[in-house]
Amino acid sequence: MSSTAAASETLTSQEYIKHHLTNFSTGEGFQAIHWDTLGWSVFLGLVFITIFYSVAKKATSGVPSKLQCAVELVVGFVDDSVKSTFHGSNPVIAPLALTIFVWVLLMNAMDWVPVDLLPWLISMVSGHEMSHIYMKAVPTTDPNMTFALAIGVFILTIYYSIKVKGVGGFIKELTTQPFGHWSLYPVNFILEMVTLLARPLSLALRLFGNLYAGELIFLLIATIGLFQLPVHFLWAAFHLLIIPLQAFIFMMLTIVYLSLAHEDH
Amino acid sequence: MNIGYTLIGELIAFVVFVIFCMKFVWPPIIGAIETRQKEIADGLAAKDRAAKDLELAQEAATAQLKEAKVKAASIIDAAKKHEAKIVEEAAGKAQVEKERILASGHAEIETERNRAKEELRAQVALLAVAGAEKILERSIDAAAHSDILDKLVAEL
Fold it and tell me: Where along chain A do its domains lie?
């Protein structure tokens, strides 16, 4: 936080922000691996799985433990969201929505970790200068993460569209609307493809954009000296809204897209 | 921002987490929730039923109590009437008995008096005869003068 200003006196604000927005990676181009994104996301996914699995193993319909109450609160919330939108029967959608909601929530919540805390801790442990340490701890500020989620959802959407409507039905849906005349089928196809591809794109970019911008503002605030403390607090408090909201939107849109895939026109 | 292997890695992680959640996390938790919801619904229904049963039982108890009171009152009434009848009968019997005893007493007294009179008369006759014997200083033939004595006795 403010201590960084002293530790990295040689950095300008611009360099400071750019440094913090660089992933800890190896390799170049397509072969680059962002170890911080991978590590934190898998770690947080394991946190989710561990907590929920420990409850699931001992789940009782009798008097629940306090942890089970908390977990049931989340599961019940997701289940209600799914049931209010999707009316078919599909064993995948609800667990998928739960995984997305909790995982994205946890990854977004990394935004609350002060931007210099992790690099500082690593430099204390490893002895390296902070300017040599790259650690972008919020996985959802990495488009690799958000696109991975969106593409996963997109593949499921295509899979269920074909499974429910058949290949012919799916192609028919892409070509015969909105215009009914056969000569306009190519136009329909272009329009429908745009609609289809815009979904994963907007899904991924919405989450990425919100969290990336939030992180950027945190970094900007970190450069303004002592006054950053109250401003940081305000911005972090604002993220009480942003973080769960973005997780919820991602989950809700996943449910909507998958229920659209199940609808036969 | 390098799109590439990281994305593939995250995609694999995503699939693994979703499958794990689908197999091992979601079913037991939602099962527990739904079972409990059903148990609670059943419990509430049972409570409503029990409350209704209680109300009915209370109504029945009140009705029975009222009936019992009416019955008790009628029994007491009958008993009082019976008692009055018994007392009346006993009084009647006692009156009759009293009169009978009085009458028999009177009759006894009457016979006793008549007997005493009879005796007295006989003795008076003897006395009179003895007196007359003394006065006349002679023996009187009782048989010859019995008609006079009888007349005397009758006059007593």
Answer: 13-261
CB A116 within 8 A of CB A133: no
Neighboring chain A residues of B26 at a CB cutoff of 8 Å: 56, 75, 94-95, 98
Between chain A and chain B, the number of residue pairs with CB atoms below 8 A apart is 133
Alpha-carbon span B51 to A188, nearest angstrom? 64
Give the distance from residue B71's alpha carbon to the nearest chain A alpha carbon, in angstroms.
52
With a threshold of 0.95, tell me whether the complex ipTM lies above it: no
Q: What pLDDT shows up at residue B141?
A: 65
Interatomic CA distance for residues B68 and B62, integer angstroms: 10
pTM of the model: 0.75
Q: Which two tokens stand for residue A95?
A: 């667990």
- Residue in A30, A142, A152 closest to B5 by CB: A30
How wide is the angle at C-alpha A199 spanned by C-alphas A195 and A203, nearest 5°? 160
Q: Are A52 and B29 in contact (CB under 8 A)?
A: yes
- Asked if A132 and A21 count as a contact pair (C-beta separation under 8 A), the reply is no
Q: What is the pLDDT of residue A2?
A: 41
A59 near A67, Cβ under 8 Å? Answer: no
| The two structure tokens encoding residue A204 | 């991924």
The torsion defined by the Cα of A89, A90, A93 and A96, in degrees rounded to 10, comes to 140
Q: Which residues of A touch B21 (CB under 8 A)?
A: 49, 52, 95-96, 98-99
Q: How many Å apart are CA B108 and CA B114, to the nearest integer?
A: 10
Identify the residue whose tokens are 């009171």: B69
Residues written for chain B = 156
Token pair listed for A10:
């040689």
pLDDT (average), residues A194-211: 94
B55: tokens are 């109300």
In this prediction, what percent of chain A has a pLDDT beyond 70? Answer: 95
Please say if A126 is a catalytic residue: no
List of chain B residues whose C-beta atoms are within 8 Å of the C-beta of residue A40: none
Residue A1: band (very low, low, confident or very high) from pLDDT cuts 50, 70, 90: very low
From B15's Cα to the closest Cα of chain A, the distance in A is 8
- A210 catalytic residue (yes or no): yes
Read off the tokens for B91. Answer: 């009084």
CB atoms inside a 10 Å sphere around CB B137: 7
Q: Which of A81, A161, A188, A210 is catalytic?
A: A210
Is the CB of B39 less than 8 angstroms away from the CB of A27? Answer: no
